[in-house]
Amino acid sequence: MSVRYIPWSMNPVLGQQDDGPLAVLVVSGGVLSNQDGYPSATRTVRLAGSLHPGMTALASTVSTGVWPENHGVVNHRQPHVDRLGYEIARPERATRQSVWSAAAVSGRHVAVCNWPHGLLEPDLEPNLELRGRLDRIDSRAIEGLAAEAPGVCPPGTVQPESMQSRLRSLPGSTSMELGCAAIELMADQGPDLMLGWMPSVPGEIDERRARLELLRRRLGEAAGREATLLVLEHGVTKPSVFQQSLRSLPPRLHVLGPREFSITGRPRVDVIPSLVATAMGIDPAAVRYRVDSPVGGQERLEAAGLPNPNRISAFDLKQFEFERNREIGASLVARGRWTEAHPWLSASIQTQHGRVDAACLILILIRIRRARGEEEAARLLASVQQRLPGSLHGLIVAWLGGRTDEVIGEEGRAILKNLGPFLTDAILIDLQRRGLLKRSGSSASED
After folding, report:
1. Composition of the chain by helix, strand, coil, percent to 5
2. How many Å from the N-terminal Cα to the C-terminal Cα in the chain?
3. Cα 303 from chain centroid?
4. ∠ CA 266-49-356 to the nearest 5 degrees?
5. How far apart are the C-alpha atoms of 131 and 159, rounded to whole Å?
6. What is the pTM (predicted TM-score) of this model?
7. Tens-place pLDDT, residues 45-78
8. Please, what's the b/e burial string for 312-326 (b: 16 or more CB within 10 A of its CB; e: otherwise)?
9. How far are the Cα atoms of 4, 264, 337 from residue 108, in angstroms, in the given order?
């Protein structure tokens, strides 16, 4: 494929396209690819790697085209705008747009199925109207119906409601099976743009590939034009960046169908909304959600019947901000944006209990050593020495001093294991960059 990447915010307004419906699917690593290769090497792009704090954050980047430091999603829930209770994570609160809202406002029939984060209702700014149609089957509906009998489909999780009876009749007893069947149900509605989250697909790899091809044909038959699938095959995204390896296999983007996409270089997953906007001929800047003002207070909580465990205390709010800052900082580090990561990490270097957060400290030390030298990093370490376990302090001293044998020795490896794969990789990669450790193709945390 020829490839030319234009950031979503710079994407020009295009005229109406007539290249058939488009589906964007997110699947787990190994669903389409194995050691024997890709479905079609000429229709697969190997994206640059990036790490997200959980699949909800990844889904938010894929739907909005911006990263956690902009959409703010680092968990499956987030504080409500009045900061008194939690709600399902909704990145539009921060970005005020998503790829499906832009398509719906542009007059397209859009369907969203099993997406990990919540969707804001189309509450648009004045002078904007929803000229298209936005159907959805929320992940909560699939989880509820896949639960032990009797299955529950929470109100408001299926739109239009007329699809609920068909959803209840779908085969499949597990969330995986029901999720796949729900996406196929959506395809039968013939939307112009469909977005679906398929964490896994049952069967062997040839059966999985065949099922996606059948989905493509069903979508095309329902719409009366040949369809194209844009499939993001992404590795497992654990709840925290610190639980993931800096050397995880990069995601792959597969094109199944007749459409041609122009991508240059080696972009990351945030390129997907740009590709969709160009392919669908929509203007991503055409929609802006109204942002709710922080009103309601205790009366809103009482009226909503929000149980006490879902209400936020001052401690909870500070803890949420602490975790958000460190996860965003680590996500930036994983993309090589150390300077931007520094203020996020600095904001979380100390916990609410007054303890030094080892993860933030180590990442800050790496940046300071690179930018200002070992002496400056040693001064920072000395200022917090009394607040660190002796074994951890000893490992950091050995690493800063370039004593590789101590770092990768038996005692050092035991400490690295406790730090987790992300920090282990960060430390060992730093030693490699300094020429003090032989490079390896495998994850440093697995050596």
Report:
1. 45, 10, 40
2. 36
3. 33
4. 140
5. 16
6. 0.89
7. 999 999 999 999 999 999 999 999 999 999 988 8
8. beeeeeeebebebbb
9. 25, 27, 36
